[in-house]
Amino acid sequence: MQKDWTLRRWRRVDEPGLELMALSRNASGLSVRSTLIHAGAESFGLRYHWELDPSWRTRTLRIDRTDAVEKSLLIERTDDANWRVSGEVRPDLAGCHEVDLSATPFCNALAIRQIGEAGGELLALFVDAPALTCQPSRQRYEPLGPRAWRYVDKGVSDGFTARLDLDEEGLVAKYEHLFEVV
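Below the sequence we write its predicted structure tokens.
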């Protein structure tokens, strides 16, 4: 019998930081709630609530800063690859297939599920944390073996690469240079 919830703790390996994420499943899809603290050079706190359809595609993502900066963002998928951000239609994000929130490794699982086993490229709606700004960014995922991938950024951080190792549920267990499960 499959569990209807999953709990993950990730820590940053490049700077001090910790995330606690809870994923729950129901008939209409998945709900993901997380709190993270980045205690590095540019410290910030975030809380997010991600609603996904049964195929693990973003429906909505609400992000709230939890530090001295009072800022929130609500991202909504309006159809297959169009988006509204905090109530405003964003034509500049048209064609983005999935959301990439820079402060968490959770979003890489969404992209990998979209691309499939053969790997490939997608245009992501990149959310810069802590600024909570959005822009399109091209990404490539190359399969390396069972549950192992190479991430290649071809957009915002052009040239950045990292190995991603996934756990048995398809979530990131280790993100080279940045995150690992605790």
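The helical segments are 106-115.
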